[in-house]
Specification:
Blueprint lengths: L9 H22 L6 H22 L4 H19 L7
Helix pairs in contact: 1-2, 1-3, 2-3
Length: 89
C-alpha cells in the first residue's frame, strides 16, 4: 500500500482560499449587473480587490510563485470586472 503524505502549509491554503473567494466575488459582481443587488455586489468586489491586492504584498515572503499566483488572481478579478464581451465592437 502506497501512502502519499504531503506537507500542507495552512497559510498557503488560506491564501488560496482568499484568491478563490476573490474570483467568486468578481464573478458575482459581474452577474449582478442590472439587478437590484448590483451596488452591493460591486462593493463586495471592490473590497475583494483590496484584500487580494494586500495579499499580493503579503505573499512575496512565500516566494515568487505565491506572489505571481496572487498577481494573476488580481489580474483575473480586474478583467472579470471590467471587460465586456457582450459589446459588438
Amino acid at each position: 500500500m502506497v501512502l502519499l503524505a504531503v506537507a500542507v502549509n495552512q497559510v498557503l491554503c488560506a491564501v488560496g482560499a482568499v484568491q478563490v473567494l476573490g474570483l467568486i466575488a468578481a464573478a458575482v459582481a459581474r452577474l449582478a449587473e442590472g439587478t437590484r443587488h448590483e451596488r452591493g455586489c460591486q462593493w463586495l468586489c471592490i473590497l475583494a480587490l483590496g484584500v487580494v491586492g494586500m495579499l499580493c504584498g503579503f505573499a512575496i515572503q512565500f516566494g515568487p510563485d505565491a506572489a505571481a499566483a496572487c498577481a494573476v488572481t488580481l489580474m483575473l478579478m480586474t478583467m472579470i470586472s471590467v471587460v465586456d464581451f457582450r459589446s459588438g465592437g
